[in-house]
Design brief:
The chain is mostly helical. 86% of the residues lie in helices and 0% in strands. It is built from nine helices and no strands. It starts with a helix and ends with a helix.
Length: 251
Protein backbone atom coordinates (compact mmCIF):
# COMPACT_ATOMS: atom_id res chain seq x y z
CA UNK A 1 0.00 0.00 0.00
CA UNK A 2 1.75 3.19 -1.20
CA UNK A 3 1.66 6.70 0.24
CA UNK A 4 -0.63 8.03 -2.53
CA UNK A 5 -3.31 5.45 -1.72
CA UNK A 6 -3.03 6.26 1.99
CA UNK A 7 -3.42 10.00 1.27
CA UNK A 8 -6.49 9.36 -0.88
CA UNK A 9 -7.98 7.08 1.77
CA UNK A 10 -7.34 9.70 4.46
CA UNK A 11 -9.06 12.36 2.29
CA UNK A 12 -12.00 9.99 1.72
CA UNK A 13 -12.47 9.46 5.48
CA UNK A 14 -12.01 13.20 6.10
CA UNK A 15 -14.79 14.11 3.65
CA UNK A 16 -17.20 11.54 5.06
CA UNK A 17 -16.57 12.66 8.66
CA UNK A 18 -17.05 16.33 7.73
CA UNK A 19 -20.24 15.55 5.80
CA UNK A 20 -21.53 13.64 8.83
CA UNK A 21 -20.66 16.48 11.23
CA UNK A 22 -22.28 19.18 9.06
CA UNK A 23 -25.40 17.02 8.61
CA UNK A 24 -25.62 16.04 12.28
CA UNK A 25 -25.30 19.65 13.45
CA UNK A 26 -28.82 20.14 12.05
CA UNK A 27 -30.10 18.42 15.21
CA UNK A 28 -28.45 20.99 17.49
CA UNK A 29 -29.61 24.31 16.04
CA UNK A 30 -31.86 26.36 18.33
CA UNK A 31 -33.86 27.95 15.50
CA UNK A 32 -34.23 26.62 11.96
CA UNK A 33 -33.57 28.94 9.02
CA UNK A 34 -34.70 27.62 5.62
CA UNK A 35 -32.02 29.48 3.69
CA UNK A 36 -29.25 28.20 5.98
CA UNK A 37 -30.60 24.63 5.84
CA UNK A 38 -30.58 24.65 2.03
CA UNK A 39 -26.94 25.70 2.16
CA UNK A 40 -26.20 22.97 4.71
CA UNK A 41 -27.43 20.18 2.42
CA UNK A 42 -25.62 21.66 -0.58
CA UNK A 43 -22.36 21.52 1.38
CA UNK A 44 -23.10 17.98 2.60
CA UNK A 45 -23.75 16.87 -1.01
CA UNK A 46 -20.47 18.51 -2.12
CA UNK A 47 -18.50 16.73 0.62
CA UNK A 48 -20.04 13.39 -0.35
CA UNK A 49 -19.18 14.13 -3.99
CA UNK A 50 -15.56 14.76 -3.02
CA UNK A 51 -15.53 11.49 -1.07
CA UNK A 52 -16.81 9.66 -4.17
CA UNK A 53 -14.01 11.24 -6.18
CA UNK A 54 -11.41 9.71 -3.86
CA UNK A 55 -13.13 6.32 -4.07
CA UNK A 56 -12.84 6.45 -7.86
CA UNK A 57 -9.18 7.44 -7.63
CA UNK A 58 -8.42 4.58 -5.24
CA UNK A 59 -10.44 2.03 -7.21
CA UNK A 60 -9.20 2.78 -10.71
CA UNK A 61 -5.83 4.35 -9.88
CA UNK A 62 -6.13 7.31 -12.26
CA UNK A 63 -3.64 9.43 -10.33
CA UNK A 64 -1.29 6.48 -9.90
CA UNK A 65 -1.23 5.91 -13.68
CA UNK A 66 -0.31 9.48 -14.58
CA UNK A 67 -0.65 13.00 -13.12
CA UNK A 68 -2.50 14.26 -16.19
CA UNK A 69 -5.01 11.41 -16.09
CA UNK A 70 -5.67 12.04 -12.41
CA UNK A 71 -6.04 15.76 -13.16
CA UNK A 72 -8.79 15.11 -15.72
CA UNK A 73 -10.83 13.15 -13.18
CA UNK A 74 -10.12 15.77 -10.50
CA UNK A 75 -11.46 18.60 -12.63
CA UNK A 76 -14.55 16.65 -13.70
CA UNK A 77 -15.54 16.02 -10.07
CA UNK A 78 -14.00 18.97 -8.21
CA UNK A 79 -15.82 21.53 -10.35
CA UNK A 80 -19.43 20.60 -9.42
CA UNK A 81 -18.42 20.02 -5.78
CA UNK A 82 -16.74 23.40 -5.38
CA UNK A 83 -19.62 25.01 -7.26
CA UNK A 84 -22.06 23.46 -4.77
CA UNK A 85 -20.02 24.77 -1.84
CA UNK A 86 -19.87 28.23 -3.45
CA UNK A 87 -23.60 28.26 -4.17
CA UNK A 88 -24.24 27.16 -0.59
CA UNK A 89 -22.16 30.10 0.67
CA UNK A 90 -23.81 32.53 -1.73
CA UNK A 91 -27.29 31.26 -0.86
CA UNK A 92 -26.92 32.59 2.69
CA UNK A 93 -25.85 36.00 1.45
CA UNK A 94 -28.08 36.89 -1.49
CA UNK A 95 -31.60 37.02 -2.94
CA UNK A 96 -33.16 34.25 -5.02
CA UNK A 97 -32.80 36.15 -8.29
CA UNK A 98 -29.07 36.56 -7.88
CA UNK A 99 -28.75 32.94 -6.76
CA UNK A 100 -30.37 31.75 -10.00
CA UNK A 101 -27.86 33.77 -12.00
CA UNK A 102 -24.97 32.14 -10.17
CA UNK A 103 -26.42 28.66 -10.66
CA UNK A 104 -26.81 29.29 -14.39
CA UNK A 105 -23.26 30.62 -14.70
CA UNK A 106 -21.69 27.71 -12.80
CA UNK A 107 -23.79 25.22 -14.74
CA UNK A 108 -22.75 26.81 -18.03
CA UNK A 109 -19.04 26.63 -17.18
CA UNK A 110 -19.34 23.00 -16.11
CA UNK A 111 -21.21 22.19 -19.32
CA UNK A 112 -18.29 23.73 -21.23
CA UNK A 113 -15.86 21.51 -19.28
CA UNK A 114 -17.90 18.42 -20.22
CA UNK A 115 -17.91 19.50 -23.88
CA UNK A 116 -14.11 19.98 -23.87
CA UNK A 117 -13.70 16.57 -22.20
CA UNK A 118 -15.91 14.83 -24.77
CA UNK A 119 -14.21 16.56 -27.72
CA UNK A 120 -10.80 15.61 -26.31
CA UNK A 121 -11.80 11.96 -26.02
CA UNK A 122 -13.17 11.93 -29.58
CA UNK A 123 -9.89 13.35 -30.90
CA UNK A 124 -7.44 11.27 -28.86
CA UNK A 125 -9.60 8.18 -28.21
CA UNK A 126 -8.46 8.04 -24.57
CA UNK A 127 -8.61 9.95 -21.30
CA UNK A 128 -5.23 11.52 -22.13
CA UNK A 129 -6.76 14.55 -23.82
CA UNK A 130 -3.52 16.62 -23.84
CA UNK A 131 -4.30 20.27 -24.66
CA UNK A 132 -7.93 19.72 -23.65
CA UNK A 133 -6.77 19.30 -20.04
CA UNK A 134 -5.40 22.86 -19.96
CA UNK A 135 -8.68 24.20 -21.32
CA UNK A 136 -10.55 22.28 -18.62
CA UNK A 137 -8.22 23.68 -15.97
CA UNK A 138 -8.74 27.24 -17.24
CA UNK A 139 -12.51 26.76 -17.08
CA UNK A 140 -12.24 25.33 -13.56
CA UNK A 141 -10.24 28.37 -12.39
CA UNK A 142 -12.72 30.68 -14.14
CA UNK A 143 -15.59 29.02 -12.26
CA UNK A 144 -13.92 29.41 -8.85
CA UNK A 145 -12.78 33.01 -9.54
CA UNK A 146 -16.30 33.94 -10.63
CA UNK A 147 -17.71 32.44 -7.43
CA UNK A 148 -15.15 34.28 -5.30
CA UNK A 149 -15.97 37.61 -6.94
CA UNK A 150 -19.73 37.16 -6.53
CA UNK A 151 -19.44 35.99 -2.92
CA UNK A 152 -17.13 38.83 -1.85
CA UNK A 153 -19.42 41.42 -3.46
CA UNK A 154 -22.46 39.99 -1.69
CA UNK A 155 -20.65 39.63 1.64
CA UNK A 156 -19.65 43.30 1.62
CA UNK A 157 -23.23 44.34 0.87
CA UNK A 158 -24.74 42.06 3.49
CA UNK A 159 -22.21 42.96 6.19
CA UNK A 160 -23.00 46.65 5.72
CA UNK A 161 -26.71 45.89 5.97
CA UNK A 162 -26.27 43.85 9.14
CA UNK A 163 -24.13 46.53 10.77
CA UNK A 164 -26.81 49.12 10.01
CA UNK A 165 -29.95 47.15 10.87
CA UNK A 166 -29.05 44.40 13.33
CA UNK A 167 -27.89 44.92 16.91
CA UNK A 168 -26.48 41.38 17.15
CA UNK A 169 -23.07 39.80 17.55
CA UNK A 170 -21.28 40.05 14.20
CA UNK A 171 -18.33 37.81 15.12
CA UNK A 172 -19.81 34.47 13.93
CA UNK A 173 -20.74 36.01 10.58
CA UNK A 174 -17.32 37.66 10.15
CA UNK A 175 -15.54 34.40 10.90
CA UNK A 176 -17.79 32.52 8.47
CA UNK A 177 -17.19 35.12 5.75
CA UNK A 178 -13.43 34.97 6.13
CA UNK A 179 -13.40 31.17 6.19
CA UNK A 180 -15.53 31.06 3.03
CA UNK A 181 -13.16 33.29 1.10
CA UNK A 182 -10.08 31.45 2.39
CA UNK A 183 -11.30 28.01 1.27
CA UNK A 184 -12.24 29.29 -2.20
CA UNK A 185 -8.97 31.18 -2.70
CA UNK A 186 -7.02 28.09 -1.65
CA UNK A 187 -8.97 26.08 -4.21
CA UNK A 188 -8.13 28.36 -7.11
CA UNK A 189 -4.48 28.80 -6.08
CA UNK A 190 -3.65 25.28 -4.93
CA UNK A 191 -5.63 22.98 -7.19
CA UNK A 192 -3.89 23.84 -10.49
CA UNK A 193 -0.58 22.97 -8.81
CA UNK A 194 -1.78 19.94 -6.91
CA UNK A 195 -3.64 18.20 -9.73
CA UNK A 196 -0.60 18.35 -12.02
CA UNK A 197 1.99 17.25 -9.45
CA UNK A 198 1.54 14.31 -7.11
CA UNK A 199 4.60 15.45 -5.14
CA UNK A 200 3.09 18.87 -4.44
CA UNK A 201 -0.21 17.16 -3.60
CA UNK A 202 1.33 15.86 -0.36
CA UNK A 203 2.04 19.48 0.68
CA UNK A 204 -0.98 21.33 -0.68
CA UNK A 205 -3.58 18.64 0.08
CA UNK A 206 -3.39 18.81 3.90
CA UNK A 207 -3.51 22.63 3.80
CA UNK A 208 -6.72 22.55 1.76
CA UNK A 209 -8.22 19.94 4.09
CA UNK A 210 -7.47 22.11 7.15
CA UNK A 211 -9.04 25.12 5.44
CA UNK A 212 -12.12 23.05 4.59
CA UNK A 213 -12.38 21.89 8.21
CA UNK A 214 -12.12 25.51 9.40
CA UNK A 215 -14.87 26.52 6.97
CA UNK A 216 -17.18 23.69 8.11
CA UNK A 217 -16.71 24.62 11.78
CA UNK A 218 -17.45 28.30 11.16
CA UNK A 219 -20.47 27.33 9.04
CA UNK A 220 -21.82 25.26 11.93
CA UNK A 221 -21.09 28.10 14.37
CA UNK A 222 -23.02 30.52 12.15
CA UNK A 223 -26.07 28.26 12.28
CA UNK A 224 -25.81 27.93 16.05
CA UNK A 225 -25.72 31.72 16.47
CA UNK A 226 -28.81 32.31 14.31
CA UNK A 227 -31.77 34.06 15.98
CA UNK A 228 -35.31 34.43 14.50
CA UNK A 229 -35.14 38.25 14.41
CA UNK A 230 -32.76 37.92 11.42
CA UNK A 231 -35.78 36.84 9.34
CA UNK A 232 -36.91 40.47 9.46
CA UNK A 233 -33.79 41.43 7.50
CA UNK A 234 -34.57 38.87 4.79
CA UNK A 235 -38.19 40.01 4.53
CA UNK A 236 -37.25 43.70 4.42
CA UNK A 237 -34.58 43.02 1.81
CA UNK A 238 -37.08 41.16 -0.39
CA UNK A 239 -39.76 43.83 0.05
CA UNK A 240 -37.36 46.65 -0.83
CA UNK A 241 -36.37 45.09 -4.15
CA UNK A 242 -39.79 45.48 -5.92
CA UNK A 243 -39.99 49.09 -4.74
CA UNK A 244 -36.58 49.85 -6.19
CA UNK A 245 -37.52 48.22 -9.49
CA UNK A 246 -40.80 50.17 -9.67
CA UNK A 247 -38.96 53.41 -8.96
CA UNK A 248 -36.44 52.68 -11.69
CA UNK A 249 -39.13 51.89 -14.25
CA UNK A 250 -41.13 54.96 -13.28
CA UNK A 251 -38.11 57.19 -13.82
Amino acid sequence: MDSLFLLQFACFIFMLINAFIVALSHLHVRWENKRYERSRWMIVAALIGLAIQYVLQMTFGFRAMHDNLGAVINILLYTPCFSLISIGIYNIETTRANLRKMILMCSGIYAAIIVVFCVGISFHHSLYIREGLYVMLALFCLSVLYCIYMIIQEMIRRKNMLETMAATDMLPYVRYSRASVIILWLAVLAMPIAIFSTTLLYIVGPAVLLALLFFNLTFIALGSSYIPTEELLYKEEESMKPNVECGASGG
